[in-house]
From TrEMBL:
InterPro entries to which the protein is assigned, alphabetical: RNaseH_sf (IPR036397), Tc1-like_DDE_dom (IPR038717), Transposase_Tc1-like (IPR002492)
Biological process annotations from GO: DNA integration; DNA transposition
Name assigned to this protein: Transposable element Tcb1 transposase
UniProt domain Transposase Tc1-like: residue ranges: 7-74
Domain Tc1-like transposase DDE per the UniProt entry, residue ranges: 85-220
Any one Pfam family match given in the protein's UniProt record, by short name: DDE_3
MF term (GO), any: DNA binding
Length: 222
């Protein structure tokens, strides 16, 4: 009984400790030697399981305030208004795991608790960049590239070959929502949007869940 309590307290204090680490720490602190399998069994018995941590974008109080303000301003938009918005984004599909094999001890129903999350918004390693846009009843073709998106590529390939065509077919009601990435905010991009009379929706930084296409990328397993 005491062994189980000690393991539970230790695992909750540092959820990234492996079963081998917990076994060694238990032996050092109490003189009791148990195997990794017993550690797993004892922790499962009290409701702690090995799971991947939930990854989220780091948000400050300012980010949260701006996000709430934007949401309230658009809460009463009608389906007709949203049907004129095209959601654009590029997503990076990594060719390697972004978790670095990080696992934690977690109880059922606590996935989004702060202790079980890792804040991160940058990922390294090799990967492919996939760009696309969706609007109610339609979508763009996917654009795939292995190089980093730059302001020149964004203007020449994305805006000129895709966004401009949808603006022409939908008229002045067309609204454009991109990903707030640095290349999207360049001066030449603003000039291109102005010259094509394309209205872009301003939205808070680090509020990826507001852009519908972000949920599409998640379903595709980026």
């Amino acid at each position: 009984m005491r062994t189980g309590i000690y393991l539970a307290v230790t695992a909750k204090r540092n959820r990234r400790r492996t079963a081998s680490d917990l076994s060694r720490q238990l032996s050092s602190a109490t003189g009791t030697t148990v195997s990794r399998q017993i550690v797993y069994r004892r922790l499962r018995h009290i409701g702690l399981y090995v799971r991947r941590p939930f990854r989220c974008v780091p948000l400050t109080a300012t980010h949260c305030h701006l996000l709430l303000t934007w949401s309230r301003e658009h809460a009463l938009w009608t389906p007709q208004q949203w049907s004129c918005v095209m959601f654009f984004d590029e997503s990076r599909f990594s060719l390697q795991s972004d978790s670095c094999w990080t696992l934690i001890w977690r109880a059922p129903g606590t996935r989004y608790h702060q202790a079980n999350t890792i804040e991160r918004h940058r990922y390294g390693g090799a990967g492919w960049l996939v760009w696309g846009g969706i609007i109610l009843g339609s979508r763009t073709d996917l654009h795939v590239q292995s190089v980093t998106m730059t302001r020149h590529i964004y203007e020449d390939v994305i805006l000129e070959q895709h966004v401009r065509l949808f603006r022409g077919s939908m008229g002045a009601d067309f609204l454009f929502m991109d990903a707030n990435a640095r290349p999207h905010l360049a001066n030449i991009v603003d000039e291109c949007l102005q010259s094509e009379d394309i209205t872009r929706i301003d939205w808070p930084a680090y509020s990826l869940d507001l852009n519908t296409i972000e949920h599409v990328w998640d379903k595709l397993g980026r």
